[in-house]
Design goal:
With 294 residues, the protein is an alpha/beta fold. Helix content is 44%, strand content 23%.
Length: 294
Amino acid sequence: MIPKDIIKKLRKIQITTSKDVMEVFSGHYQSVFKGSGLEFDEVREYLPGDEIRSIDWNVTARMGRPFMKKFVEERELTVIFILDVSMSTKFGTRNMTKNTLAAEVCSTLAFSAISNNDKVGMITFTDRVEKYIPPRKGIKHVMQIVREALYSKPEGNGTDINKVLEHFNLVTKRRAIVFLISDFMAPDFKDLLKTANRRHDLVAISVTDPSELSLPRAGIVYVHDAERGDFTTVNTNSRRIRNIYEERAKSFILGRQKYFQSASVDNIDLYTDKSYVEPLIKFFKVREKRRRRI
């Protein structure tokens, strides 16, 4: 039995995200992702003027006369959310934690997908694969995904993106739209990111809290590394300490961007103190312009 407070939260997210979908996301989603490729339909006999490159040579050899592969535009897509639920995502000092932001983004995009009759699935991960929800359609299925995103109880603490991408490549054979949502505080995962993006349309969504970029002045504070379990003390009044902190943060953000660029992966940067609506719309508009140029 799901507790009443959780049901109330799920309903609130459903109402809020459904409104966002109806007002801004569905049209952008459809224009960016619908009909993004071709899928095999059937074979037919060759007709004068047909493209030779579309000949099905196996059927042609078997039948003794040329046959063509017929393709149709994809109308039904599969959308997969690969969601980081490690301990570092539970951090937040402003409007919400990083994992709550990630869950609301999942919800909005998932409702966009089912409003276009697409299948939606999810893989949650930490330093291991936590849960795999196979792609399906329908409101009840999306609510299961949102519930898992909000209230998952992971066994692991750390973050291993390589491990989840290996699992994803094994369980997902058909081309999919993939949203990898994380703070990306993980060891090198560039090679598997490239592999996944070659097979699928992968979009990285980075979630960040402002306090991870700039250390506030709060005197001597105890700092806990939630993934490793380490404790330390930091004098936040020290300008030198704050400068070192900011330089390391800038280096991490820059390195993260270079990762995505080298893997040819689109990235959306989201922050816990700002609305995610505008960055998502901006991403969709950039994608639309790119498609029109092709």
